[in-house]
Q: What sequence folds into this?
């Protein structure tokens, strides 16, 4: 069984597609696991989401995370208790609450990302110069895969 990889003549096998999917998924999981404190994956994901979209609302975060509003509210409450986010009433819409990272939240975000980068840097050192160049040459292609069609 073959799968078209592009509108051109290039085809990849089902086995190659499976290997790619599994390698990318495993790499993503391993990077997300580079966390040495008590924050769960869900809390880290939410913290990073707030950082990307602040100021934001609980409803927008729930939609973005693909979870129910009550679930995201529980997680936001935990981040608030930890002092990692702040909540401010929207001056234009008193019913809305805007969520932002606090200074402690920004420091935690930086620590999480730094931990992932340290892990990745250490593992990249195991690659040969040719493997490293091939990987870096693939980055623009991987970025294209992440774009919304």
A:
């Amino acid at each position: 069984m073959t799968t078209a990889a592009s509108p051109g003549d290039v085809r990849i096998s089902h086995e190659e597609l499976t290997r790619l999917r599994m390698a990318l998924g495993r790499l993503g999981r391993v990077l997300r696991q580079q966390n040495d404190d008590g924050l769960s994956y869900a809390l880290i994901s939410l913290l990073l989401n707030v950082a990307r979209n602040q100021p934001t609302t609980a409803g927008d975060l729930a939609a973005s995370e693909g979870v129910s509003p009550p679930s995201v509210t529980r997680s936001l409450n935990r981040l608030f208790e930890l002092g990692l986010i702040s909540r401010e009433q929207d001056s234009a819409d008193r019913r809305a609450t805007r969520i932002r990272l606090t200074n402690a939240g920004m420091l935690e975000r930086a620590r999480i990302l730094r931990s992932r980068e340290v892990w990745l840097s250490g593992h990249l050192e195991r690659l040969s110069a040719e493997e490293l160049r091939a990987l870096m040459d693939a980055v623009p292609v991987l970025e294209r895969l992440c774009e919304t069609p």
Summary: The chain has two domains: 1-32, 38-140. Residues 1-32 form one domain. The chain has a mean pLDDT of 89.
